[in-house]
Amino acid sequence: MKNKFKILGLMCMALLAISVFTISCSKDDDPADNDFFIGTYNGDISYQGDGQTITDDDGKLTVVKVGSSYSFKFGSGIPDINNVKFEKKDDNTYVSIGSGVTGITITASTLKMLVSNDDGTWTADCSR
């Protein structure tokens, strides 16, 4: 009889451990905590400033995290945008905040940008 109680106790402990593990690895994890929008997006990109205009209908734009801010690394000779902060707009959509960098909306699959400041004007309509 003691052995049956030991086995029953071990089975209950195993079930409890599996339950705790399953709950802690839930799919309700907020993607922003995982920097889900870091990576490369492709699409229309452009820049106008310093007396030049650059457009690329098949451009590449890479989002990287540097500390607590983000940088946008453009292909096609377009200058980068650095030190951008974001706030959550709704489920999995983030918008840029801060002086001179407003106008960026980003999700896991799309990036839309219209940023205009003293350094120029950047546009992007990209996806991945």
From TrEMBL:
<feature type="signal peptide">
    <location>
        <begin position="1"/>
        <end position="22"/>
    </location>
</feature>
<keyword id="KW-0732">Signal</keyword>
<protein>
    <submittedName>
        <fullName>Uncharacterized protein</fullName>
    </submittedName>
</protein>
